[in-house]
Amino acid sequence: MKSTNGEPSSLGYEFAGVNVNDGKAKPPVIYSDGLFGGRDVVKVVLLVMTVTLSCLLFYNSANNPLNMVLSPYSPKILNETSLETVPKRKPVSELERVLMNAAMENNTVIITALNQAWAEPNSTFDVFRESFQSGIGTERLLKHVIAVCLDNKAYDRCVEVHPHCYLINTTDSDQLSGPNRFMTPGYLKLIWRRMDLLRQVLGLGYNFIFTDADILWLRDPFPRFFPDADFQISCDDYNGKPSDKKNHVNSGFTYVKANNKTSRFYKFWIRSSRKFPGKHDQDVFNIIKSKNFVEKLGMKMRFFDTVYFGGFCQPSRDINVVNTMHANCCIGLDNKVNNLKAALEDWKRYVSSNTTVSETKWNIPPRCGY
């Protein structure tokens, strides 16, 4: 028997039954032929069995076509039998494993960098984590933070208090573990090691917020990001123009989308550092940001307003809207920690008062001491 149009029944997510109509809207007629029933009955049964077996074989070979298809940006899929989340695929490296575990649904992670001095109890990492817990809409983001550790002691401390820690394999970790005052050789090594890791993250297809660990997270920053920008960066001093490359940038807080333009930019940025030895990433960025190569990339840059992304260089003028506060323009680890704690106490008093403040005053000294 065959369908009235002479074509086989289609297979897909919904399986059709056997079409036995003859085109005249009449039911099939089965004639008796002998003591044990008609031959047409045997034909119908065999046909039904054949179609059923074919459907089962198709269903199995398609590996359950009824299973939902998730977004390609989702790092996990559902196990169809237990409904437990399982990795979409096995990571090819330890870095990728950490990224997969920490990523948001749209493949975005938050990254900070630590050494032994910054990871010590009551140092910057503890204040950093406390700010997420005290902020508005920020505590849920803490589970997406990856702490990149530059030495073994930083890593050991990290795994005691935080779920996502990644140790960079280095042969010179002893040079990176101390306070590393601004612009010392150890500081510059730390900076460029961090930059190379961010390049790898983009290459693996992950968007990231990079945040220095001496930044307080007071409000969820995502609503303040420019939706159409590829690369966004904070400023020590903001001139009021979000597209103006003359802004004095601070690379301690950046939001970068993973695409070909940003990946090529980071490679160029790191490669350019060899032409300017002794300079840190911000200096090199200011040199290359208007180069022809960067212009031709078509990468859309935006610069953050210090009202929302403030720092000790230019503290936010409005605590009612501030998202982050950075201990920039503050030299020395002890100075940073003490003044971050003071600023966090200002924030806690503001939150507990539950009122809009007409005048914002931060309990931090000018220039934060040297």
Spans of at least 5 consecutive residues whose pLDDT stays below 50 are 1-36, 58-87
Name of the CATH first level: Alpha Beta
How many β-strand stretches?
12
Strand content: 5-15%
Tally of domains: 1
Helix content: 25-40%
Summed up, the helix count is 11
Give the H and E element order: HEEHEHHEHEHHEEEEHHHEEEH
Q: How far apart, in Å, are the first and last alpha carbons?
A: 92 Å
Average pLDDT, rounded to a whole number, is: 80
The largest β sheet comes out as: 7 strands, mixed
- Give the overall silhouette: globular
Q: Please state the structural category.
A: alpha/beta
CATH homologous superfamily classification: Spore Coat Polysaccharide Biosynthesis Protein SpsA, Chain A
Q: Supply the CATH architecture.
A: Alpha-Beta Complex
Task: Describe this protein's structure.
Helices cover 35% and strands 15% of the residues. It is globular and about 100 Å long. The longest helix is centred in the first third of the chain and has 23 residues, at 39-61. It has one domain (94-368): Spore Coat Polysaccharide Biosynthesis Protein SpsA, Chain A, CATH 3.90.550. The termini are far apart. With 370 residues, it is of the alpha/beta class. The strands form 3 sheets. A 7-stranded mixed beta sheet has the order 5-4-3-6-9-8-10. It is built from 11 helices and 12 strands. The chain has helices at 39-61, 94-102, 116-119, 124-134, 152-161, 173-176, 185-203, 260-272, 281-288, 292-297, 333-353; strands at residues 76-78, 85-87, 108-114, 145-149, 165-167, 207-211, 215-217, 231-237, 248-256, 301-303, 309-311, 324-326. Its EC number is 2.4.2.-. This is Glycosyltransferase. Belongs to the glycosyltransferase 77 family. It comes from Arabis alpina.
